[in-house]
Write a structure and sequence with these properties.
With about 160 residues, this protein is mainly α. It has five helices and four strands, in the order ααβααβαββ. A hairpin with an 8-residue loop joins strand 3 (about 125-130) and strand 4 (about 140-145).
Length: about 160
């Protein structure tokens, strides 16, 4: 409870000019442009830089109208958005780590001669779980191998 109250006080003290919604839209655009359906290593690395820059701007120029004395949905938005920066960075880190085209996510560096998604089952046939290590620390990747008994792994053609 004390930690949440301190975080709310920190957000209210910023007294900037931009709304949480404006930051949310900009974060979404970064993720769509660089970590969306089509992605590449250069774009994912750029997204990590852009997210850090946007997060810094958020903590220096956020405007939350009203107070914490009554229901204030702007505080709720800002609290969620503070977490979304962490989630966005994790999405980009996970996508950088997975150097293959996977499911609906296409890595430009990982395609067949015909432009189809190229999987790398030898190196990426696992379930990934990232362990949070704290603010400004890299999460730790844990892998659990996938074993298929009834399904044959093979590349798909979408043509």
């Amino acid at each position: 409870e004390k930690g949440v109250k301190e975080k709310i006080a920190k957000l209210l003290a910023i007294k900037g000019k931009q709304s949480a919604t404006s930051f949310h839209k900009r974060l979404g655009k970064i993720l769509w442009d660089y970590c969306g359906m089509v992605r590449n290593e250069e774009g994912l690395k750029k997204a990590l830089v852009l997210i850090d820059e946007l997060e810094g701007e958020f903590w220096s120029d956020l405007c939350i109208p009203g107070s914490n004395e009554e229901l204030n949905q702007e505080i709720e938005k800002a609290l969620r958005l503070a977490d979304f920066f962490e989630v966005g960075k994790l999405l980009c880190m996970d996508a950088l780590n997975r150097k293959e085209s996977c499911g609906a996510h296409f890595r430009e560096e990982s395609q067949t001669e015909n432009g189809e998604a190229k999987r790398d089952d030898a190196n990426f046939s696992y379930v990934a779980a990232w362990e949070y290590q704290g603010k400004d620390k890299n999460p730790v990747l844990h892998k659990e191998p996938l074993h298929f008994e009834f399904v044959e792994l093979k590349e798909r053609s979408y043509k």
